[in-house]
Design a protein that fits this description.
Elements (H helix, E strand, L loop, with lengths): L6 E11 L1 H7 L2 H19 L4 E6 L2 E7 L5 H26 L6 E16 L2 E5 L1 H10 L9 E5 H6 L11 E4 L3 E5 L5
Parallel strand pairs: 4-6
Antiparallel strand pairs: 1-3, 1-4, 2-3, 4-5, 6-8, 7-8
Helix pairs in contact: 2-3
C-alpha cells in the first residue's frame, strides 16, 4: 500500500514548563482560564504560518510542510511567541492577583511524516513526530525557557546561523539548545 500523503516538513511544539505544579496548585476554573489564554496567545502569534494538528494539555503540535525551512523565520517566530506568552502571563498575574510560574520551551524538528483523518480529527504519523515528542522529555536543558533546534532541522534549513557555539548548548547527537536570553 502506497501513501501519497507523505511529505517533508517542520514540527514545532511549544510546551509549558512548570505545568504539573501549576495544575496542582491552581483552582480548576482559574487554571483552565489561564491555560486557555496562553494557548490562544501562541496560536494568534502563529498567524496561520503553521497548521495545528493537536492541542494536548499545555502543548500545541504545530506542523508545516516545507522543503526549505528558514532558520531565521522560525527563530523570529519563536521570539515573538515567547514575548507574547510572557506579556500574557504578566497581564493575567496582575488581573487575577496571582503569581503564574510557567515558562515556555520549544521543540523544532524536521523530517518526513504523513497525516490521516479519523472523523473530524487530522492526525500526524511518523518517526519524526515521535522524535519531536521525545525531545520534550530531555535532561539537556539547563534552563526552563529554551528552544531546541534538532540537527535534522538545522541541516535542512536555509539561511543557517553562522555560529552555534556562542551562548548556546551544542549537543552533537541532538541539535542546539538556544536559551531565550540569547535569542533576542
Amino acid at each position: 500500500m502506497k501513501n501519497t500523503n507523505i511529505q517533508e516538513g517542520i514540527i514545532l511544539i511549544p510546551d509549558f514548563s512548570g505545568f504539573t505544579e501549576f495544575v496542582f496548585n491552581t483552582k480548576l476554573y482559574t487554571g483552565e482560564y489561564i491555560v486557555r489564554q496562553l494557548l490562544s496567545t501562541l496560536i494568534d502569534v502563529n498567524s496561520h504560518y503553521f497548521e495545528i494538528s493537536e492541542i494536548e494539555g499545555d502543548a500545541i503540535l504545530f506542523y508545516r510542510y516545507d522543503e526549505s525551512p528558514s532558520y531565521q523565520r522560525i527563530s523570529g517566530m519563536l521570539t515573538k511567541m515567547r514575548n507574547a506568552f510572557n506579556r500574557k502571563i504578566e497581564e493575567l498575574s496582575k488581573n487575577l492577583s496571582i503569581t503564574i510560574e510557567l515558562s515556555l520551551k520549544f521543540i523544532v524538528h524536521y523530517g518526513t511524516f504523513s497525516q490521516y483523518n479519523i472523523g473530524n480529527f487530522r492526525k500526524l504519523y511518523g518517526k519524526t513526530i515521535v522524535e519531536a515528542h521525545q525531545f520534550l522529555k530531555n535532561e539537556w536543558a539547563e534552563q526552563p525557557s529554551y528552544a531546541l533546534f534538532s540537527n535534522s532541522f538545522l541541516e535542512n534549513s536555509s539561511n543557517k546561523e553562522a555560529d552555534f557555539n556562542t551562548g548556546k548548548l551544542h549537543l552533537p547527537d541532538v541539535g542546539v539548545i538556544h536559551y531565550f536570553e540569547n535569542l533576542n
